[in-house]
Amino acid sequence: MEYRYPVLANVLKSIAVDWSEENVTYQLQRLTSDEMRKLRELFNTAEMIEDNRGKFNPFGDDDYWKDAV
User: Fold this and answer.
1) Residue-level pLDDT at 16
2) How far apart are CA 47 and CA 53, in angstroms?
3) What is the per-residue DSSP string for the chain?
4) I need a surface site. Which of 2, 19, 36, 63 has the fewest CB within 10 A?
């Protein structure tokens, strides 16, 4: 079974449009604990990618890094 996170998707879209502290706080408060966990996973992956730029790509294709910059 594949889970979908429509509220998380809407929260991220809203934050992308309005980065104000009030909007970010409001949007994040809308998330369930499961959605917050998925958001943490997303940020952990982003952090790992950032930490590995210019190094071995743990996700496979080394050409990925030039497209990601």
Assistant:
1) 97
2) 10
3) -----HHHHHHHHHHHH---HHHHHHHHHT--HHHHHHHHHHHHHHHHHHHTTTS--TTS-TTHHHHH-
4) 2
Q: Could you state, in order of their start, the residue ranges of all structural domains in the chain?
A: 6-68
- Estimate the crossing angle of helix 21-29 against helix 6-17, to 10 degrees: 180
- What distance in Å separates the CA atoms of residue 9 and residue 1, rounded to the nearest whole number? 19
d(CA 47, CA 14): 22
